[in-house]
Write a structure and sequence with these properties.
binds S-adenosylmethionine, 16 helices, Rossmann fold, five-stranded parallel β-sheet, seven-stranded mixed β-sheet, alpha/beta, 2 domains, elongated
Length: 475
């Protein structure tokens, strides 16, 4: 525990925050950051356990409520002592059950709880990476089972913690009234169709930084097959090869490729005879895409822009085809806002072809005990799923910096409805059992009929991995 020389109360009287949650929820890190930022006195509740409790936990045994009682009383006594000395506190404590929290609350008036949560698979992955903590992984499940979420009459709030601890701390402090606004997107109001500019700025910058950091690694990854593409003028990306039946004859058409990344698919569309414009908000991706087109000697125009303002970025231009997908719409907070941007790009009779991650796959985060686990939202949610990661889906030796990213899933019905309600008619809706990367690396096998595609090695009919929607704007 730390005892800083000064305290910074948010309120007239001392304030007491307990950052609660199961193991690996990040409560100690967040509580320490709050203490650093506010100057409040910090304590880790684990430091108050007696030697018997520690020995029991080390041996993998759960503590009983009787074991916990003296510990909880010691914590409440500590809060009381600090309160009487006029000091605000922040404590990291699992506080899983209502009756434990009642004991902590008895320490001083106004004890507030910040409950940090994440899906089980995320916690499990985090705890697997921990060394030197006295709680064995086997206790995580029992903690999750025991957890009693905050009840309506308890002071406090719950936060999903799949974001960097600094961002979580921003949100906590904003909610506690310390700061006027969080630095990352976090809202409780219903999402407007087009996010307001402050919100847009926050998640855009965070996501753009991720994509800038990946661009070079992807351009040199064998998975993107740049050298094969450059080996001959009739070489196409595997993605475009797969999508050709939906694209039709592109000869002489004006095509815009939205969220074009490093331009492997964009180049392929040009090789099929289209006049192509690629658009992406990542400057580094656009640089790689331009370099690829130059090396291939193919004329492609590139525009750097947020896709949600593509009509403004592209001025009066209208296209015969908007092509996009394979990890595109998951970066956008609103599928309605996406459709608002896409449809005005089309001439009457113009088409949209999108093959993207199936929302069913988006809802499957990971495997839990070898099983696919539907842990993530299927439908579009107000809150993004926030990741904090230093890896990517493409094979690379390049060391990537750790980056936060914000993603949203969109249900198939939501995507179709967004297009239909803007004057489009569907010409194809296909669901595929494969994806052009390995979403679950240990469970996938190459597709027997589609080079570059992977599907579940066992019973691939279980999961729709990607979908294709082709739609046409009515004349
Ligand atoms: C997975 S890649 C696109 C897929 C492409 N098929 C590929 O693999 O080459 C996602 C792309 O979306 C871009 N992106 C993400 N959010 C965007 C936004 N709001 N506006 C424009 N581009 C965005 C990223 O920069 C990245 O290049």
């Amino acid at each position: 525990m730390t005892t800083p020389s000064s305290t910074t109360p948010l309120h007239d009287r001392p304030h007491h925050i307990v950052v609660m949650g199961v193991s690996a929820s990040g409560k100690s890190t967040v509580a320490e950051l709050i203490a650093e930022r506010t100057g409040w006195v910090y304590a880790d509740a684990d430091d108050f356990h007696g030697p018997e409790n520690i020995a029991k936990m080390n041996s993998g045994e759960s503590l009983t409520d009787a074991d916990r009682q003296p510990w909880l009383e010691a914590l409440a006594a500590w809060i009381r002592e600090q309160d009487e000395a006029g000091r605000s506190t922040v404590m990291a404590c699992s506080a899983l059950k209502r009756r434990y929290r009642d004991v902590l609350r008895s320490g001083a008036p106004g004890v507030e709880f910040v409950h940090l949560t994440a899906p089980f698979a995320v916690l499990r992955a985090r705890i697997a990476g921990r060394v030197g903590h006295f709680m064995p992984q086997s206790l995580l499940r029992s903690q999750v089972d025991q957890l009693e979420p905050l009840e309506a009459d308890e002071d406090g709030f719950t936060l999903d913690v799949r974001r960097a601890p600094e961002d979580v701390t921003d949100v906590v402090l904003a909610k506690l009234g310390e700061r006027s606004a969080p630095t990352t997107r976090f809202r409780e109001e219903p999402a407007p169709t087009v996010p307001d500019s402050a919100d847009t700025g926050a998640f855009l910058d965070v996501n753009r930084s991720l994509w800038d950091s990946r661009a070079h690694a992807h351009a040199s990854s064998p998975d993107y097959e740049v050298e094969r593409l450059l080996s001959g003028p009739d070489q196409l990306s595997r993605v475009v090869e797969f999508d050709r039946p939906f694209l039709g004859d592109l000869t002489g058409l004006d095509v815009v490729h939205l969220q074009c990344h490093i331009g492997t698919d964009t180049l392929s569309l040009a090789r099929l005879g289209a006049r192509v414009t690629g658009l992406d908000f990542s400057g580094r991706s656009i640089e790689e895409a331009r370099a690829l087109a130059d090396r291939a000697g193919v004329d492609v125009e590139y525009v750097e822009s947020d896709v949600l303002v593509a009509p403004q970025a592209l001025g009066e231009r209208r296209f015969d085809l908007v092509y996009t997908g394979i990890g595109a719409i998951c970066w956008l907070p609103s599928i309605e806002a996406w459709a608002d941007a896409v449809v005005p790009l089309l001439r009457p009779g113009g088409r949209v072809v999108i093959r993207d991650v199936h929302p069913m796959l988006g809802a499957l985060l990971d495997t839990v005990d070898g099983h696919l686990a539907a842990e993530m939202p299927y439908f579009e949610t107000r809150e993004p799923v926030v990741w904090d990661d230093d890896s990517t889906y493409a094979d690379t030796d390049v060391r990537l910096p750790r980056r936060t990213s914000h993603e949203w899933n969109h249900g198939l019905g939501e995507i179709v409805t967004a297009l239909l309600s803007r004057g489009m008619e569907l010409t194809a809706l296909a669901e595929h059992d494969s994806a052009p990367w390995r979403p679950f690396p240990t469970l996938m096998a190459p597709h027997p009929d589609h080079p570059g595609e992977y599907r579940l090695a066992e019973r691939p009919s279980r999961v729709a991995m990607t979908f294709t929607i082709a739609a046409r704007l009515r004349d």
